[in-house]
């Protein structure tokens, strides 16, 4: 659609205008006795109170245009003159169009386009451009004009009171051509109802059950119209009135005789805000020396013991009443009580801190002992393994230390428990220092020879066995340490060895 003179009002041209431009491009501007514009069928769209242009351009190759005129067809089918121009007598405006219309060009014979200033809705209709030529005759062209109006909108909020039944909270109205569309933009829970009436008037109602929590919530109306680039928003906030909710503040339960500057405050909400406050004391009048200022009760003197009691505050607004009370006690020496209370609080805090420290210490000690036990277990395991290893090494050495000399044999009847220690002892004796060896230092036992100790009684054998075990243990320790202490023959009792055999000749 084509738009002209946007600042004065839009003139919108329908799709037929593009057909006209195509025709002009195909057939040229000069046509034998025919219209250059408008095309055969043209629908125009204009906004009320704006400027409207109705095109009319005619060209002749022979003769001339002698008169042009515009007429409008009324809804009842009749016609009314709008304006006329004669090539010699000038132009004339008719009826309600007088002073509102004019030709676009100063030479209407060359360009007969009509301009309507401050277009009205009543200007809507079918217009005819009539061209009189000489000698070709008369020619006409029709145009259809539609006039739109910008929507005129309003919103009427309704003041609500908490506790009322389900009712209308706001009404949004709008009128325009074509009729606008209305909607609500809100998070409130409610219902909307749209209504329409003649003349393009639309309205919508939003209803809900009022609660004090809804007070001040947005309830906006949106107006949608084809003449608007985006919906027009009418901002609004819901108003819900509710009684005051009152509370008494200022008493800290530590009022003492002689305290100065004491006061009680009556804090109250509500919508609208309370404008009236009343103070009273249960069971009697207010004490002397107090004053009421706004919602506060001031003690202009030091407190006395008789100032105690139950104080009540009453707040009022246009909706209802809110009440609140507080029991005031004025003690003789609450400061000591306060000190004792503070001491108890400090002691309690200290005890709590001590408990926390003890718990933390126990946890730390437990972790330390666990860690130490794990370390000891590792060390014990390592030591056990080392002992096992040393024991195996000692066993290998004892086996390897057995005398392999075939000339020296031990009778098979000697117990195996004594064989290795005895041989080890003999090796130790043979390895003694030079100069200490004599005929008793070399021992040899022939096969079949038995020591005299086997002839002793069984009790003596058990005693010798215990002595031998002690000696073997000492020998093992000496072998494991890598050093052998000198062993004299007298280090073992004679009863163990028995009489030594003489060396063979």
TrEMBL record:
Gene Ontology CC entries for this record: adherens junction; membrane
Membrane topology: Single-pass membrane protein
Major subcellular site: membrane
Ig-like domain mapped to chain residues: 40-146, 244-329
Biased composition (Low complexity): 483-495
Comp. bias regions, Basic and acidic residues: 447-469
Classification via SMART domains: IG
InterPro entries: CD80_C2-set, Ig-like_dom, Ig-like_dom_sf, Ig-like_fold, Ig_sub, Ig_V-set, Nectin/Nectin-like
Disordered: annotated segments: 424-505
GO biological process, one term: heterophilic cell-cell adhesion via plasma membrane cell adhesion molecules
Alphabetized UniProt keyword annotations: Cell adhesion, Disulfide bond, Glycoprotein, Membrane, Repeat, Signal, Transmembrane, Transmembrane helix
Residues spanning the membrane: 343-368
Compartments reported by the entry: Membrane
Pfam family, one: V-set
Gene3D superfamilies in UniProt: Immunoglobulins
Superkingdom to which the source organism belongs: Eukaryota
Family of this protein: Belongs to the nectin family.
Protein's UniProt name: Ig-like domain-containing protein
Organism of provenance: Aldrovandia affinis
Lineage of the organism: Eukaryota, Metazoa, Chordata, Craniata, Vertebrata
